[in-house]
Design a protein that fits this description.
Blueprint: E1 5-12, E2 17-22, E3 30-31, H1 34-53, E4 61-66
Parallel strand pairs: 1-4
Antiparallel strand pairs: 1-2, 2-3
């Protein structure tokens, strides 16, 4: 397979949710927890890859999470 797929969870500190960035057409996710995000990505990605691209079988998907936080140094 020549195309590689990715799903990225990006933390939005103002909304306090994880939002998605992906090259899997139709995969749009917004969740309060990273665990829920990963679960939904694993649930919907196979269906979307099959429906949109006719793929079947095992397809590797790279998963990343990006976020940050502020700390008050003592």
């Amino acid at each position: 397979m020549s195309q590689s797929f990715y799903v990225k969870a990006i933390w939005d500190p103002e909304a306090e949710v994880w939002t998605s960035q992906s090259n899997i057409q139709g995969l749009v996710i917004e969740t309060a927890t990273l665990a829920e995000f990963e679960s939904l990505a694993k649930h919907f990605a196979p269906e979307l890859l099959a429906e949109n691209l006719g793929l079947s079988g095992e397809v590797p998907v790279r998963f990343e999470a990006e976020g940050g936080f502020n700390v008050l140094a003592a």
